[in-house]
Amino acid sequence: MRKNTRKMISLVLAALTASSLLTACSRDVGKKVDNSKAQLYIANEESGYGRTWLINIAKNFEEYYKDYDFGNGKIGVQVHLEHQLDEFGETVLTNTFKDLPYDIYYISGFAGTAFEKQGYVVDMTETVTEKIYDEDGNFAKDTGKPATQSIVDTLYDEDYIDVIYNYNYGTDQAAKYYRMPMVLAIGGIVYDADLFNENGYFVDAQGNFGATFADIESGNCSTGPDGVKGTYDDGFANTWNDFVDLMDYMVQSSGGSVVPFTWSGQMNYQRRIAFNSIWANYEGKNDYGLNFSFKGVDDELGPINQSNAYLLQQQEGKKAAIKAMYDIMSDSKYYSSDAFKNDHLEAEQEFVWSKNTDKRVAMLMEGGWWEEEAREVFDSMSDNPADAYGQRDFRLMPIPRFEGVEGIADQKNTTRVLSASTSQQFEWISAFGENTEIAKMFIQFSHSRSQLVEFTKNTGCLRPYDFAPTQEEYATFTKFTKSIYEYVYEDAKVEGCSGAEIVVTQPTAPARISNPTSFDTWIFEATVNGVNYKEAIDLFKGAPGTTVNEAFAAMQKSWPADKWGYQDY
Amino acid sequence: MKNKDYEQGLMRRFKWWIYGIKVKLFGGDKPKKKKSLSSVKKNETIFLTLFLVFPLVQFAIFYIGKNINSILLAFQSYDVNKSEFYFSGLTEIGKVWDKLWIEGTGLLDEMRRSGIQFLVQLLMLPLNVFVAYCVWKNLPGAGFFKVILFLPSVVPSIVFVLLGRYFLQYGIPEIFNSPGLDLLDGRNPETMYGFKTVLIFGCWLGFAGGMVVYLGAMSGISEDVVEYGRLENMNFFQEFIHIVIPAIFPTITTYTVVAFAGFFTNYGYFFSFFGDGGSAPCTITLGHYFFCLVAGNGETPGGESAYPEAAAGGFLFTIVVAPLTLLVKFLMEKYGPSEE
Prior knowledge:
Chain A is an alpha/beta fold.
């Protein structure tokens, strides 16, 4: 009897263990399945963009197709969403992808490119080239206007096509679209415009600090780096020297209660974003873009191909970025004492929270998603409605021009250039999902104008597709999002303004694609005093006596010509 | 309306239902035919085979297969243009050997830090044993120490790392009113704060593992032997040296041998604190370097092109450390104290 009881218990335990395995393969991702409707399963790698945008688009999709006959008696569609970070990261997903039930994935790029090679994802060529949108990006069938555009036609910049289309892995196969870029993750330096206004950190027409929004409004302000009045950057420091003076002014005029910068010393991406934005803006789109394609002609260095791309380490724009980091590190009053201790969330928190402390932070090195990522911090301050999410005035900082800066050749590029890590995030349709046709419909729906707006409204980031929000929609954007939109699309509104050119930081050179680890330090790597530094800021922290020229020379030594070894492609 | 009879009826039906399942599964309580010895043996063999087949296959793939693959990779290089491996003899091993002796871009500093980490580990060993002995002897405060030192065994180490990081970076500067103080700064080669702090942190967490193992070993010491020590009027330290150390020496040998074997691969808590060490170049040890070479840094995955260097490093270190480890084991077993 006792033996049988033991057997019984063993069986129950075994069944429980087995059931946990079945749970892992479950298709139920949180919502009860309505069998009268078609089903769609979506996986979202929940990074800085959050989940609200996808929840809303999914709801809109369900609503739009609520009366649509999907066949087999299914009327309407039900969308199931799963939001995970590590589970949908490359390391885990590489092993689990084949067994997961999701039809669509919003995940990071590296895992996906491998999936393309292995046939894990669906060819989306027809879906993304079908002309279904009118001239405004709305579904033509809804507006009655001619269908003139496909998803590919609405891409913000044809350079994206190189990233997503010409990826045929060195074979003779015709190139296909397997993925579409998700975000235009513009980054750089974010500044607290409220603080700039309150303390008069803008520059007036005579070149003195003390100007406010009212001065800018009335035209009593500097032209800003672009040299044109009446544009986004009016009132901002024209040159890098002016900017260094501004940092000093912030510290001196506030008696030390304002700290110009903070960042994350733990996560290098924040420092890299700032470094990249200065480098890109100095070099211009073509020359900066060579660092990812290894193909073309650099204005100063001449023809660049994969066999001599190490020469790009000599770009003056890099020296300018090193100089910028040097200046920021030149006085410990210019940055927060927590900057090197912070992780990225702590840096965001410090930036936002500092309003309630005696050390208010004026600028943060970050990407466009930061406001959504710091939403909890804003929520914690929402007792004062003026401090709630989306209410405070943060803006993307225009990069001052490098003119008359000691040791740096004068900047030639006059166009706003932004570095965007767009391509690290893509959307894919899984070959292992069972609802491929519905997935394709979702992709097309999510690219219609109103849904692109939905994304921007809820993430603070743009998608890399041309779209124009209505006035009502624009009013729903946060001030920071509006600043990005304005900075990028200002040419459409202001005569004489060039708008912004954006460089996709997704490598297209085979050498870079095949050796991601080796090129991880392409941005910066230098050995000084026997220590190998991978960020310029870190170098000036660890070896404070180092000059800009020494750092620049040490960086070039990290990519010696005799150890390069790559051939042209 | 429910009444007692109804409930009893329900219970009775439930019992019969359970009995029904039991009968279906095991055939009831009626006497069964006795199984023959051969059928019992056969069932046992089938059970054991099924039981062992999974770990054996796992061992074959993840130990034998993986190591064969690694050894082969150590003699290959990666063609960055064709994205493929090719046999290159001792090239990669030679490259790693050369790199070991170069400062800055090489691995000399990493080797030095591994050496320091190894020495600290060795120096902590007697202290670990002695603290475990104090707890075993139930000295005043032993219970408190037991809890404090056992805590890291109960709570996941990554939680301690997070707590430690927050306390060290934000708590300590607040307590000492020194906002600029960063005990986890891994950028400055002069102060080496980050490296030293994490080493000390590792020592504290090392007590936890040591305490469990050494206390376990001490609890196996015969009462008679301890009693004999008392009769011989041994004091606290004599008992430690003449009774406890010989009794647990096999455990000490194991720990020492493991420390030697891990010289090149141990990365302590450095990865937990600093990730790939990109922002803390003055903390990287050899183990940390080679781990990140393959694993990547969280943002950039480790690429195939890095595999030959990692495999060559592993091969080279095995050649150095395997005989050394065996020698240490042999010497400790031969010349170490015994209970006899």
